[in-house]
Amino acid sequence: MVALVIAEHDNATLKGSTHHTVTAAAQCGGDVHVLVAGSNASAAAAAAAQIAGVTKVIVADAPYFADGLAENVAEQVLAIAGSYSHILAPATAYGKNILPRVAAKLDVAQISEITKVDSPDTFERPIYAGNAIATVQSGDKVKVITVRTTGFDAAAATGGSAATETVAAVGDNGKSTFVGRELAKSDRPELTAAKIIVSGGRGMGSAENFHILEPLADKLGAAMGASRAAVDAGFVPNDWQVGQTGKIVAPSLYIAVGISGAIQHLAGMKDSKTIVAINKDPEAPIFAVADYGIVGDLFEIVPQLVKELG
Fold first, then answer.
1. Contact predicate 230/239, CB 8 Å
2. pTM of the model
3. Partners of 138 in the beta sheet?
4. pLDDT the model gives residue 180
5. Where are the alpha helices (DSSP H) in the chain?
């Protein structure tokens, strides 16, 4: 058995999601190869070759891979798919855009957002917003899998010495064209990679009140997140949303401020190592998953926490 991991990258660096996916691939048994489809992506390929557990890096380099268009990357995966028993990608927007196309063309059932590998053909994945875990066994010759990265530790970024092989790039299928990208820039850590997250909910009351959380996040070196209710109310941008329809996170510390704990939000953060909840409602569902709970007025408690942190 040989597993292929589709690397998520920006041509210069690998995304952290790739390292988590390599861990899942290694647990499937056999060798692990990584496909880097990009443009002038030698730096990303070199980084992939150093990941512990990777035995080969396959590089497909062409200008039309520069922006990761799913139509082109999927065709490249299909061109080499015959050599692999498992094809995996992170369950990010990137991976979710590519692998369904691959699964459809291979006429196999995709196994989505796995959190555990029980055996080479059996996997666990959350269902019903994380309230139940389904154990799925696949009889397909090729297993096409997206990996919920919070379920697997990241493979070490160094220590590997994989061989690198360059393959012929498939042609541009011309079905899509890259138009533009708007990037949200922040001095804070990326939400899905942050070790500490401070999130606010509807209880914050307004966009202006979210500024109360900034000193706490600054003290902790944390990313800032939000519940869907806060996003829908226009308090913060969409890319802050944590939850079933937002970003799935599992930091070492998650501080939920003014978040009631609706099931959709819990699905996105309940795997955090330590959860601290601040809410004036002692019956709020968030307290059921919190390791530490503070019942009280967030507008008094958060400034006190900042003061205690010095």
1. no
2. 0.85
3. none
4. 87
5. 16-27, 42-49, 70-80, 93-106, 214-220, 228-232, 263-269, 298-308
